[in-house]
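To: structure desk
From: M.T.
Subject: fold request, one chain
Message: Could you run this one when you get a chance? Sequence is below, nothing fancy, just the single chain.
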Amino acid sequence: MQIIGLDISKASVSCCLITEKVSDARQFYYNYNFQKFAATVTGISELLTLIGNAANTIAIMEPTGVNYQILWGTQLARAGVEVRLVGHKELRSFREHHLGLPDKDDDADALALAIYGWDYLESPRRFVQMRSHTIVEIRRLVLRLAHLNRVQSPIINRARQDLAWQFPEVALVRSLRSGEKVPLLWGWLCGQRQSVKYDLMLERSIGLGITDELRRHAARICDIQREEMVLEFELSKLVGEPQFLPYRKVFARFGFGRRVEALLLSQIFPFENYLAADGKPDIKIRKGRRSGKPTKRHLSLRRFCKALGYAPSQESSGDLQKSKIVGGSDLCRKALWQWIFTRIEPQRCRLNNDIGDRLGQIINEEKASGRPVRLVRSRVAAKAVKLLFKELVRELVQNPESKI
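Reply: Done. Structure tokens follow.
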């Protein structure tokens, strides 16, 4: 058995291969001949030559998104090397406090990854859960859609500022896609759609006239919208696979949109990862610090909440007690916050079921108590995550027919 730690950069990777347990990390760091390979055909070939026996090798790396890690991870997996991922926070703590390595650099990270992989070889929960190909593709599409949303927002804002003096009557119009057609306003501005309504409004407008620059902005918006349509079609096919039906059944009770469904699936599938070895929620009994009585610790629920970005970490010392939310998916946290803002808080849009009634009552009581509205939404979103966990347990664990 051999472990290779890989610290991945934009166009290269630093490597550290160990075949036995390292007792003195600092001494090993100064004596070992670290190697670095470029992201080329030659670099991949040299890395595989260094590994040699792929069947007895485990590669340890950090999950550096879909841009860097995916190249090296895929190439190694194709060669028969097992790939495991280590969280950034876990590796930083391990390198600084457990190994006492010098200042952070690529070689120190590669060595820390290799030693981490060796020390925790028999502890699967120490590693980031490897996702299936379908989930990886769903996550890629979700991240791409989020990127396109960020890209087009400043373009739309700039176009609306131009419309304020060129065609002010439509500057605040909220134009949306209709089926496979681009939004009417932007399509009309760049000549890709016809509209008698906007033609007549432009004739009577007090604006100074539409410039070519604004039309080019509108064309860019339409191009981005078409790309979004293509990605959403691919996403719809993946999310519609039979293995996700029990999850989507639960999501439907919460009124999540397709993008939110896909985002949640990319983070929590398969649900069994959050359960104990017997397939049930992991609950431990521990003596309470204040009451002294046996207290339940819902470990599965906490892991689930943390994955979605809604598990506070306590920092207590003496009489000082505080907590803050760290880790988890920022995209999920933002999506759930927005879901509260659009589907739970407005009375006219609220879900017409027990979930909507329960969360709606909580948000009404919280706002009536005078708490800041942003804090209220975050607190209700955290309660919604706990409720989502219970609904998934009921559907996937307690209902035998829904087990995958």
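Reply (cont.): The first strand starts at residue 2 and ends at 8. Let me know if you need anything else for the meeting.
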